[in-house]
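worker-03 picked up job from queue 'complexes'. Input manifest follows; four sequence lines, order preserved.
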Amino acid sequence: MSKAVRKRRQPEEARLEIMQVAQRRLREIGIGGLNVADVAKDCGMSHATVIHHFGSTGGMRRALVDHMTDALLRDVIRRIEESPVPDPPAILQSLFATLSEGGHVKLIAWLSLSGDEFAADVHGSAQIESLFSQLVPVVAQRLPAGHEDRLLAARRIVFLTATAAMGYGLGGETWAQVMGLSADEAAAFPAWLGEQINRMWLPEGNS
Amino acid sequence: MSKAVRKRRQPEEARLEIMQVAQRRLREIGIGGLNVADVAKDCGMSHATVIHHFGSTGGMRRALVDHMTDALLRDVIRRIEESPVPDPPAILQSLFATLSEGGHVKLIAWLSLSGDEFAADVHGSAQIESLFSQLVPVVAQRLPAGHEDRLLAARRIVFLTATAAMGYGLGGETWAQVMGLSADEAAAFPAWLGEQINRMWLPEGNS
DNA sequence: AGCGCTATCTACATTTATGTCAATAAAAAA
DNA sequence: TTTTTTATTGACATAAATGTAGATAGCGCT
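worker-03 finished. Artifact:
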């Protein structure tokens, strides 16, 4: 056995690479892919190095939750901010697209299946709360006077968008297949949902 | 150490008890709760017994996927069948409630995070496909002529109900909190969604 | 060039999880 | 009762994952 050539990184670099590899493995392999040995191998380093940087396997996983939470947050914020300012339909479509994207849904699913393992880790909620507290009024402004409580209605619309996006990202293909939607039709679902939400901007009544 | 008093069960009984305990552990502890040693301890038996009945840890987990898939299927079918026959809103509310319920969402999340581990295990899809192929027309019949393709619209409505339910069950509380919905308001979300879907039965147009 | 720091490595130790086996006991059958 | 069957068990064996420690080598600094 010849001695391995060492690739020495800056600590931040190494941590980042490990996080990226781990995230990819969570997406492609699942939770079973998150052991130090295999993550390290994928990074081309020894598992001792991973432990050096994160202290333990649990440390690595907690760091990954943080990393992915930050990424989710950043994506939501970025996609919302770069959309034309007062255009709720576009904003909601962005939100849907962002949340249903593979990696983010895996994070949510992982958290929901991890018991209390990462209980204290939903930090950043302050940031995202302030984001939504800005977003909700924008949506509310477009609602007609017919709604008795426009703020509540806006919250519900955003909430619907978020839940549908997560469900869509989680088991969308499977359920689409089961209930007879073609792949194309399933892919068109977000746009259709957008239209339906648009209809909520119309006055209520006329049964 | 006194010898343990053995409780001898019928094999079916033992398997069922193990499945129930494992299912509860998946709900309450997460994937980490699905090792033979701890499941066995919760059942009050030795881990060798669990292996005797399922062959291996993987065997136990595969059996659990089957067990929970069957339960999901049974619940969906039962709740739909016991609702007043041609009442789409009630049926969709039932579907939502069933799918968003804790245990079932955990199954879906687990499958989505398990890579190919249970690839060949979505059996029963024949049953559930036939179920939805009956359900969709019932929904479609209530749609107004305004819809160019009522069957497609019905599929989308059912699909929306299913995806929203899963997202709601998966991360509902968290997102509700983040976007400023009170617990009560979040709990009222399914009913609100039902109303919105009802509005889809109204004629389109009048922008 | 020489020095210090530390990221990285290999090799080992430890812990945890899984799987095996022969003995045993509970229940059914004879 | 005796026999047969097999669910159950404890003790052991093995495998897999995690963690530890000392040595080393890459890189910045002087």
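worker-03 released lock.
Chain A has a mean pLDDT of 87.
Residues 38 and 55 of chain A are 16 Å apart (CA to CA).
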